[in-house]
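Re-run requested by the PI after the first attempt was lost when the workstation crashed. Everything re-entered from the original request form. Ligand of interest: 6-phosphogluconic acid.
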Amino acid sequence: MRTLQQSTYEILICADPAELARESARRFAELAEVFTNDVGRFTVALSGGSTPKAMFQILAEKHFADALPWRSIYFFWGDERCVPPDHPDSNYRMAWETLLSKVPIPAENIFRIPAEDEDHHRAAAVYSETLQNFFAEEWPHFDLVFLGMGPDGHTASLFPGTEALKAHDRIATPNYVEKFQSWRITLTADAINKARNIIFLVAGQDKAPALREVITGPRNPELYPSQLIEPYYGTLLWLIDEPAASLLS
Ligand code: 6PG
């Protein structure tokens, strides 16, 4: 593992996806202990896609399943595909099957995005209201937000050239993604940037060109939406593997 420390973010380069999964699980556990000891709860927004799966599987193992204060951990999502929660493409389903169904977490601690609602604006509004009620604030302040990044530089469901990139007055918003011919519900960059800690999990050679542009390229969030992630006062950690880091000087 090697670190590249920058003024506003840290890059931690792991040898491979397995080391990345172990390190992300360790960071989750560390923050869970800190926040539940300090404020009695830990609020985390999960990312979707495939990269977090190995981390979820590690957190479901006996060591973490027995040790972590699951009753004080509250789960949310950064984005969701507009499918039912039992659909193979559901981010909720992936997290449920690999982690949440395997640890002693109360059902009332899990706040999934009601993305199966065909009225996508209503789904986003309901989720936003759920967050406002839970945090008892106008905007949520997650203790930790996990994010992934696609080969096109998207994060959550903030895709290049899409409407959600311009949504600055709301917590969550529906977003039509032309290339998938489908709708997503996503937290906006403003809502993500209010988090206390943000961790990007990025693995694989196919992500290297976009990662170089996002981190060292000219500012162009319309083309590389991951550049919108700049926490207002929290920490930003890029947890990446060597292949993904291969074009970073
Ligand atoms: C989703 C995600 C998305 C994901 C990236 C990376 O719903 O798909 O939230 O932003 O994190 O597409 O996906 P992989 O981890 O599968 O590469």
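Saved to the shared folder this time. The radius of gyration is 17 Å.
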